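Progress report, Aim 2. The chain analyzed during this reporting quarter is listed below.
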Amino acid sequence: MKTNHRRASRAVVAAAAATLCLAGASQAQAATLGSVTFYTGADRTGTAVQLDLTKVGVCQELTAPVRSFYAASNQSVDVFFNKDCTTGAPGQAGDLYFRTGTLGRGNFPYAAVSYRIRSTG
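Predicted structure tokens for the chain:
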């Protein structure tokens, strides 16, 4: 009987450990990973601006226009060429905006002046 009790105890401990590992893994996936950096010059030159990826869904204005980016994160960023995260080419109405993706680098077609961090879910 003691042997069965020990086996049952071990099984309970193993199941609890597995549950904790799975809970920790899902929390880690929800966390912000990596970084996204904007640059005032083309081809990642000029002043670097590190984005705060915790401000999800909030339109943020840039203090200076940016021309390029480097993204290595689990979140993508919607980039706008007008203030207040308004779509369109600079000074024009339209549906134009740029999405960085989660892993990449490049130049924006116009100087970007506002952005919004996208949710990972």
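The radius of gyration is 22 Å. The beta strands are 34-41, 45-50, 59-73, 77-80, 98-99, 103-117. These observations will guide the mutagenesis work planned for the next reporting period.
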